[in-house]
Amino acid sequence: MRLLLLVFSLGLLAPSSSTPRPHSAADDRPNILFVIGDDWSWLHVGAYGDAVVQTPNLNQLAERGVLFEHAYVSSPSCTPSRAAVLTGQHFWRLEGGANLYGPLPAKHPTYVDLMENAGYHVGLTRKGWAPGNLGERRRNPAGPRYADFDAFLDARRANAPFAFWFGTSDPHRPYDTGSGAASGIDLDAIAVPAVMPDHADVRSDIADYYVEIQRIDREVGEMLARLETMGELSNTIVVVTSDNGMPFPRAKSSVYDLGVRVPLLIAWPDGAPSGRRVTDFVNLTDLAPTFLDAAGLDIPDVMTGRSLLPMLRSEASGQVEAERDAAFFGKERHVPSQRAPDSGGYPMRAVRTADYLYIRNFRPDRAPAGIADYEAAFIYPSWYGDTDGGPTKHYMIAQQDRDAAHRRLFDLAFSQRPGEELYDLRTDPDQIKNLAGNPDYNRTKRDLHNRLMAELHATGDPRVLGRGDLFDWQAYTGGTPGPPEDDR
């Protein structure tokens, strides 16, 4: 096994060096304030059209900057998603870092280290790259830890530009049950996603999720006010996004829009014309090269993301760069999806365009939402562990046989899936009707499959190069959700 892992670790390109470009003694390079939420789908911001959740600071940020309509994570799971942000690489290139709780090998350069080496003051608060095993790294890849933004700024040396990672744990579960209704959120006004039952328990659960998004909004407002008081807001690139979608069934840990499509707001008064909505398809792997580019640093060749700087500096809205017409993403292991002999997850890869979502499920024999049998779930007891525990999950499982409608939604979230899925987003934006078996779509399916495979081969994905089992045999060190009486 050690030999296999060594071969795997040597299978990707070695990182190139990054050389700082000259800068003035006054150092007018832009600051970076990176805010990353934890389990937050793109829909749930006022600026994206949600009339219930209250996000005045984020709405104002969108007005002052650029709102990205089509921003996607590399993987809808905390560890690989955050690793992809830091390294600017597709998650499947990161060995054990492609899995929840996996290590991120030190050979993969991060924008944080490169910017620190070039004179930036770097640091994080709360959740950085996590959860995972640091392995050979001596600190969190997102930087040294500070108590809060104020402590980070107080530690900065004079004239140094900064790159700060604010990793809130909101809106990750668990929630304070009933907090949404208690805060005054109108449960009847909530738009329940079509893949979830429209039930009081679900509406209340979503309202509790909204409470935590509103807390993100308040904290972003506080940091922006601090920068404005310091006179540094205009030369700070402010980015607000999330690591994956909402922690609900058929959302987080799935490659449907509710799992991989996230909010992305970027404001930079000195460098990005304001009030624009961009429809280009971008991935959060594009952020690392963007930060390096803005700092005047070379972008390592191993980064598969592409700098957004030309787009930010443009005055255009809508489609700005014609070639950005698709996003690629996928998943390896969130929690184990089979019992033995390994601890493999549910490997998927997907391509999303304006009109279609195509998904390749490499192991449809496994449990797509985690094993249902708590007692028999190999050595990792779980209960549909790919979906975090909570009222919506519990209701959908308990009521799965109530009627045909409940059964259909249960199957969409938890039951077996075929090897291929294809959704026509022009008629099915909720991605409910799988057309992969419809002969009328054979050509579309073939074209999207070929486009996806071309990207995976070009970027060295072990899953399509005959080495996908090496993801499965990585040790799993995390916990998994149990039944309602033992949900962890």
What does this structure look like?
The chain is an alpha/beta fold and 488 residues long. It contains 14 helices and 11 strands. Strands 3-4-1-5-6-2-7 form a 7-stranded mixed β-sheet, sandwiched between helices. The two termini are 31 Å apart.
Shape: globular
Q: Give the biggest sheet.
A: 7 strands, mixed
Mean pLDDT over the full residue set: 92
As residue ranges, the low-confidence spans are: 1-25
Entry summary:
Helix content is 27%, strand content 14%.
What does the secondary structure layout of this molecule look like, with pairings?
Blueprint: H1 2-9, E1 31-37, H2 56-64, E2 66-72, H3 78-87, H4 111-117, E3 121-126, H5 149-154, E4 162-167, H6 179-182, H7 200-230, E5 236-242, H8 257-260, E6 265-267, E7 276-283, H9 287-294, H10 309-313, E8 326-331, E9 348-353, E10 356-361, H11 391-398, H12 404-414, E11 420-424, H13 442-458, H14 469-472
Parallel strand pairs: 1-4, 1-5, 2-7, 3-4
Antiparallel strand pairs: 2-6, 5-6, 8-9, 9-10, 10-11
Keywords:
488 residues, alpha/beta, 7-stranded mixed beta sheet, 4-stranded antiparallel beta sheet, 11 strands, 27% helix, globular, disordered N terminus
